[in-house]
Amino acid sequence: MKGYGRSLLMASLFVLASFLGSGSSMAEDELFLCGIVKEVDGQNLLVDVNVLSGSCPGPKTFKLLTPNQASLFKTDATQCFFIDSNRCNERKTYTILKIEGVRP
After folding, report:
1. Cα gap 56→33, rounded to integer Å
2. Which residues pair with 47 in a beta bridge?
3. Is residue 20 a part of any domain in this protein?
4. Which residues contact 36 (CB under 8 A, 6 or more apart)?
5. Are the beta carbons of 33 and 55 closer than 8 angstroms?
6. pLDDT higher than 60, residue 9
7. Any idea what the CATH number is for the domain that residue 91 is in?
8. What is the pLDDT of residues 85-103, one digit of tens each?
């Protein structure tokens, strides 16, 4: 019985450690936004968008991951994209992770 209790304790500790360790590797939620592109600065990897989405409305500047992303944004077009946060703080500049394309 003594060996069984030790095995159960070790298994429990392993499961607990696995659960706690997985928190840092879990993906952060991404916020999906749509807005009208006002300006694209490919050199500094920034894009200004008048966001239409209710979760983050108004003019915002976003960072781009790569120079290739700049070519995907069309001025005065409505475009949708994911940012690196699940919420929007108007004082923070978020990074665009994925671009969904142009909307009519």
Report:
1. 8
2. 40, 62
3. no
4. 49, 50, 52, 76, 77, 78
5. yes
6. no
7. 2.40.50.140
8. 999 998 899 999 999 977 7
Distance, CA of 38 to CA of 77 (rounded, Å): 8
Write the DSSP symbol of residue 28.
P
Lowest mean pLDDT among 17-21, 34-38, 53-57, 59-63: 17-21
Please give the tally of structural domains in the chain.
1
Residue 39 tokens read as 């300006």
Helices then strands, each counted (H, E), the chain: 2, 5
Question: One-letter amino acid identity for 41?
Answer: D
Tell me the average pLDDT across 40-57: 96
Q: Please state the rounded mean pLDDT for residues 15-38.
A: 66
